[in-house]
Amino acid sequence: MNTGVDVLSDTMGVDFNPYLRRILREIYNTWLPLIPVEARPPLNKQGTTLIRFMILPDGHIGAMSLDGSSHDDALNRAAWGSITGVGQFPPLPKEFHGPNLELRIHYLVNKDPQAQ
Predict the structure, then answer these.
(1) What value, to the nearest 5°, has the Cα angle with vertex 49 and ends 47 and 54?
(2) What pLDDT shows up at residue 1?
(3) Helix H or strand E encompassing 77
(4) Rounded to an integer, what distance in angstroms lies between the CA atom of residue 68 and that of residue 76?
(5) Mean pLDDT across the chain
(6) Binning pLDDT at 50, 70 and 90, where does residue 22 land?
(7) pLDDT above 70 for 115
(8) pTM, whole model, 2 decimals?
(9) Distance from the CA of 34 to the CA of which of 45, 84, 110, 114 falls in 20 to 30 A?
(10) What are the CA-CA distances from residue 66 to residues 19, 52, 53, 75, 91 (Å)?
(11) Hey, what long-range contacts does 109-113 have (CB within 8 A, 24 or more apart)?
């Protein structure tokens, strides 16, 4: 199980790496228990889901969309739930003066990240 992230917003020169590491850890830890049993050994169902969402300056989640479906409802629901399950993220860095941070998270279930 693996996640990756695309930053879709203009970061305006702000280093978001520490922030992204923190929220990706929260998302990953929320996602793991949601992954369906069919994706665990011995079945090892595979899939890739892409979720796009916004984080508002106060850390609340803004708009969300399914950018890429695994064509498996259980895998898609687990990915979606990993964001909604966190509920609210830490506020965006004070130095950032944009309206929001837009991200796309890649959820790879039993897939090689190098093959993407």
Answers:
(1) 165
(2) 67
(3) helix 73-84
(4) 9
(5) 93
(6) very high
(7) no
(8) 0.91
(9) 114
(10) 23, 6, 9, 12, 24
(11) 109/1, 109/35, 109/39, 109/45, 109/46, 109/47, 109/48, 109/49, 109/70, 109/75, 110/1, 110/39, 110/44, 110/45, 110/46, 110/47, 111/2, 111/46, 111/47, 111/48, 113/2, 113/4
Q: What is the pLDDT of residues 23-74, one digit of tens each?
A: 999 999 999 999 999 998 888 999 999 999 999 999 999 999 999 999 999 9
For the chain, domains (ranges, CATH) are 2-115 (3.30.2420.10)
Closest CA to 86 of 69, 103, 68: 103
The DSSP bridge partners found for residue 109 are 47
Query: Average pLDDT, stretch 9-19?
Result: 96
